[in-house]
Amino acid sequence: MTEHAPMSNLSSKPAIQVQNLSFSYGESRVLEHVDLTITPGEFVGLVGPNAGGKSTLLKLILGLLEPQTGQIRVLGQTPRQAARRIGYVPQFPSFPRDFPISVEQVVAMGRLGIGSMLGWQRAADRDAARRALNEVEALDLARRRIGSLSGGQLQRVLLARALAGEPEILILDEPTANIDQRVETDVFDLLATLNQRLTILLVSHDIAFISGYVSRVACLNRTLTCHGTDAVDGETIRELYGSHVRLVAHHH
Ligand SMILES: Nc1ncnc2c1ncn2[C@@H]1O[C@H](COP(=O)(O)OP(=O)(O)OP(=O)(O)O)[C@@H](O)[C@H]1O
Hints:
Blueprint: H1 9-12, E1 16-25, E2 28-38, E3 43-47, H2 54-61, E4 69-74, H3 79-82, E5 86-89, H4 103-108, H5 123-135, H6 151-164, E6 169-173, H7 181-194, E7 199-203, H8 207-210, E8 216-221, E9 223-228, H9 234-249
Parallel strand pairs: 3-7, 3-8, 5-6, 6-7
Antiparallel strand pairs: 1-2, 1-4, 8-9
This protein binds adenosine-5'-triphosphate.
Residues 25, 30, 48, 50-56 line the site of adenosine-5'-triphosphate (ATP).
């Protein structure tokens, strides 16, 4: 009966599974009874009003915060166990822009913890960093100082940093918040290509824009509702989003 027990069982597990998750900072409840299942290969856009809990949910999925109630599984593991299988692009660079460090070194940081303590010095790690830079079409920036880059270039480099760890899931927190629309389109075209081999969860304010790229939109304002994007245009999503905000407001 088990002769066909598929190896692929592993990959058929949800990429991310959030069940009945609640989280508070002190007395302040930020997330309440959140359920979200993301299957491998999906590209999910997480949208919602300011302070709706989006970054907090990402931090819980990344294992940077611990849920007080409910559970999270990432590729069948706890968030901490799965941390190296996720590539994360933070909302703002988590290093000073004037830090004297090259693009290549920033990207190599995405390998830390994978090999030895000096992992970024190993040839395999250097190759992975260069492959990642090549994939985001930024190999020509390798020797540049990180602080000298434009917003769009910096975003590509941060994406390369996340890819250097060869993740199975990519999580991005407002990756295009500080760049113009033309560059935003380039970044999303790149994400669409990456989505051919990676599951993507992306926070954005720009619902109309992301609706052209994502397979599903999840609206978060303390609680969460998900909507498919079949035949949903930007206007419809704005309506869903608006009605959700009003719906949640009734809870007070
Ligand atoms: N470390 C913290 N300690 C206390 N409160 C926090 C902390 N981090 C976030 N909060 C609060 O939790 C709420 C949710 O914040 P969060 O950053 O998750 O929202 P968000 O949806 O990502 O917001 P935005 O769209 O503005 O980035 C906010 O009221 C915020 O002030």
